[in-house]
Write a structure and sequence with these properties.
- By secondary structure, the chain is an all-alpha fold.
- It is built from 22 helices and two strands.
Length: 480
């Protein structure tokens, strides 16, 4: 597949945006994917039901365990449709045995319980790697998208569970009496084999197959979208594709320039090639120079012919040396152990985990361009606000109340408000830190201030009087 044929916009995305892209690819071709699923997965399920008809209670477990094999056909289709090729029934049927048999044992054994299965499957299946190279490749990709791949599995597990329970609950009333389990006997005697009829197990198995059919293609698409995003971020696919498109646009211009240059240089005299024999002679002449001379040094070493007698028995002094060495070895081990214990006890304060103290946030003097220091505010803020309101300066009246509230909250309540916070951010800080009464008042005051300052909508006299009467702050910078 060529990168120029991609049918999706390649750009670095946020993880959940990339997952949504994969699900959109599945929604675009869900009918075709469902048809391919029916001709590849349904026959396998039919064989499982025939083989395990004597023990239907184990069928859902076997269907669940074989899910890594089902994912390969949807991924085969999505990986090609993303690059403009949509395989048909004949092509998919021909590739089906190879897709299922490739990496069959790893997928069902040590990779089966992987929590990044849908994210790692494209790297294992599409890149043609084997053995340790697959593990190394998945590990490299997981550094960028492994956490999101885990969240995909967690989210789709919850979706599958909720759908299964909902389908079981919605179809329970339609079961015949012979297939309905006796719930009271189940919870009283815990005799599942005697109280649950075989038909109920078949009902659960069929419902689970329906849920897997509806959910699993989207699970594969979500992992494939995250895989495309990781490769785009790591390998710069979007940049490479932009350069390729730029190069294709410049091909015609470059060809014209080359043709014109060739026409201009066509009148020149062509260079004459030297005869082959003359060239070989020149090469031999150059190789005969001293710089290409190979220097060889030969040396001889005399080794005496000594007859070493064989030792028939082990000398007694070697036993003494071995005993002394063993005593020294265990003495060193015991000494190091004692020293390590003494060092840990003496320096145990180093290994005590202490909680970091929270840094005290300095109270800002200006918030959103408004001076909220105590010196900039009148002693009686409510009286000053009423006077400004009576004079017709409505914005100044609300500004006095709002500045006074901020001054009290940052100096007295130590609300972590910074000079760059907006009205919404200030309100969120107050709701998390401030008392309930002050937080409720500040919410009402913020709404009135934003309405008058930004929306230019008038505030009623009743609302202004209510704000002045309900003023909850005291002392300078907030005294009523």
């Amino acid at each position: 597949m060529r990168l120029e044929d991609v049918t999706v916009t390649l750009r670095p995305r946020q993880p959940w945006e990339a997952i949504d892209l994969g699900c959109a690819l599945v929604r675009r071709d869900f009918g075709r994917l469902l048809a391919l699923w029916s001709v590849t997965v349904f026959p396998v399920w039919l064989g499982i039901c025939v083989v395990m008809r004597a023990v239907p209670e184990w069928i859902p477990l076997v269907v669940w365990w074989l899910k890594p094999l089902y994912d390969r056909v949807p991924l085969f289709f999505l990986s090609r449709s993303a690059f403009g090729v949509r395989p048909g029934f004949a092509q998919t049927w021909k590739a089906w045995p190879r897709l299922w048999l490739s990496g069959f044992l790893p997928a069902l054994l040590w990779r089966r319980l992987s929590f990044i299965r849908s994210f790692a499957l494209p790297a294992q299946m599409l890149e043609g790697l084997r053995g340790f190279a697959v593990k190394r490749r998945v590990k490299a990709l997981a550094l960028d998208g492994g956490g999101s791949g885990f969240l995909i599995s967690y989210a789709f597990l919850k979706i599958e569970t909720v759908l299964l329970l909902g389908l079981l609950w919605g179809t329970y009333d339609f079961l015949p009496e012979s297939m309905t389990p006796d719930m009271q006997s189940i919870f009283t005697s815990f005799d599942f084999e005697g109280t649950i009829p075989p038909g109920a197990f078949w009902w659960v198995a069929v419902c689970y197959m329906v849920v897997v059919t509806l959910v699993e293609p989207f699970y594969v698409g979500a992992g494939f979208g995250l895989y495309l995003n990781c490769r785009t971020r790591i390998e710069g696919w979007d940049v490479e594709l932009a350069f390729r498109r730029l190069g294709s646009r410049l091909v015609a211009t470059t060809a014209a320039c080359v043709l014109g240059l060739a026409c201009l240089l066509g009148t020149g005299t062509p260079a004459l090639a030297a005869p082959r024999g003359e060239a070989e002679a020149k090469v031999k002449e150059v190789l005969k120079s001293s710089e290409f001379e190979v220097h060889k040094i030969q040396s001889k070493r005399w080794v005496p012919d000594m007859d070493i007698p064989e030792v028939s028995g082990k000398p007694w002094h070697l036993d003494i040396v071995a005993a002394i060495g063993e005593i020294l070895f265990w003495g060193i081990v015991a000494g190091l152990t004692a020293w390590l214990v003494y060092y840990l006890i003496k320096n145990r304060h180093v290994f005590v985990v202490r909680r970091a103290r929270k840094a005290v946030v300095a109270a800002p003097a200006v918030v959103m361009g408004m001076n909220i220091t105590r010196a900039s505010l009148p002693d009686d803020i409510v009286a000053a606000a009423r006077a400004a309101w009576a004079a017709g300066d409505f914005k100044e009246a609300l500004s006095l109340l709002y500045r006074g509230s901020l001054s009290w909250l940052v100096t007295r309540r130590r609300v972590p408000i910074t000079d760059s916070d907006t009205e919404e951010e200030c309100l969120s800080h107050v709701l998390m830190v401030g008392p309930q009464a002050e937080a409720d008042y500040f919410r009402q005051l913020t709404g009135a201030w934003v309405q008058a300052a930004y929306a230019l909508l008038p505030v009623s006299n009743a609302e202004m009087n209510a704000l002045c009467d309900a003023w909850p702050f005291v002392e300078k910078g907030g005294r009523a």
